[in-house]
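Journal club prep, notes for RB
We'll compare a predicted complex against what the paper describes. Inputs for the nicotinamide-adenine-dinucleotide case:
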Amino acid sequence: MTQAVCILGATGSIGQSTLKVLEQHSEQYTVFAVSAYSRLDELLEICRKFHPKIVVVPNEKVSELQQRLNQEKLNQIEILSDETGLIEIAKHPDVDIVMAAIVGAAGLLPTLAAVKAGKRVLLANKEALVMSGDIMMQAAREHNALLLPVDSEHNAIFQSLPHDYLTTERTGQPQLGVSRILLTASGGPFLNHSLEQLSGVTPQQACKHPNWSMGQKISVDSATLMNKGLELIEACHLFSISEHFVTVVVHPQSIIHSMVQYVDGSTLAQMGNPDMCTPIAHALAWPKRLKTHVPALDLFATAQLDFQAPDEVKFPALNLARQAMRAGGLAPTILNAANEIAVAAFLQQRIRFTQIAQVVEQTLDAVQNAKAENIDIILHTDMIARQIAEKYIVDIGG
Ligand code: NAD
Ligand code: MG
């Protein structure tokens, strides 16, 4: 029996790595549905190779895609569009596994739909969980969805936790002998830059990560350490642990992908060459294991593993995220929305790198926090925070 996979964001970095793993195990998995946003050439390549039943693109791309599919005699592939199409494939009854790999808030409703349909959901789209927190986790429990982390750190934490940790009581306290989570961070491309140097870095430099090849938005987030801040919030929700029990450790080699400490003095780590195919394969097959092309770690070649505390003065985004998690309610939604707008403005060279965190901080101050009671309030707050962040960017000359 093969399992049918839906990939939300198939043309992106995580989407492509997922397809690479699936291709290697085509006897076990079929690609049932995929979505793309702007890259039609990549989408057509996926259609030729994997023959999905359904593809989803923005409405304005439908006619061009239909023409190109017709030309290639791939017209049996059904085309759906926009958010309704994404939700439809995410909850489709023939789908067993959903890879949530859209970047940003655009992935929230489709990911939530997959969770509510009780799927095995492989979560790469951390912004969806940062925004919706308890609502997403509650929906997973209510609908018996298996929400498995693909983010390399969270996947490493999951691998280092006791086997039944995800189903233990959710109290905010570490359970089953766990005492602390050590969330590792590479430190990004500007780890050793001075504050002055940071203010002059370009989008191109920010997108050149030393260890990982990723989409633009997460690359900038890695450079500001906002990625680690979002991951801190992600870890608190996934593992039901308050931020107080999560320590961020800068580990520039990205060989240890995170650690779990236990009350008896043990520290368990998951290690491997930095390649997202490993956590993707793990989440696809868990509790089984799938072979990947990723070579086993050669410790003699690795030689050195370094650790240091993050510099929260140079990289204030991390602490903004920790404060947002501590404040709770809608604060993480506001943080995420402002960050998405600020990163986009930095990529368009409208603001400086160091102004990203300023925009986030100002927006957090300006938007009223409240209880995140339901998804409509979250979406409304996301919209307001975006408007305020955008206004602040214009005010500072962007
Ligand atoms: P990417 O930019 O390479 O790909 C993003 C995907 O999202 C594309 O397939 C695009 O079609 C789709 N998309 C973009 N905007 C959209 C919109 N408005 N509506 C619908 N679809 C849209 O990004 P990525 O690096 O693959 O990251 C995807 C997610 O995975 C992000 O949330 C990121 O934080 C997370 N993640 C990525 C990595 C990595 O190594 N790349 C690691 C951990 C977590
Ligand atoms: Mg990560």
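Talking point for the session: Residues 375-395 form the longest helix (21 residues).
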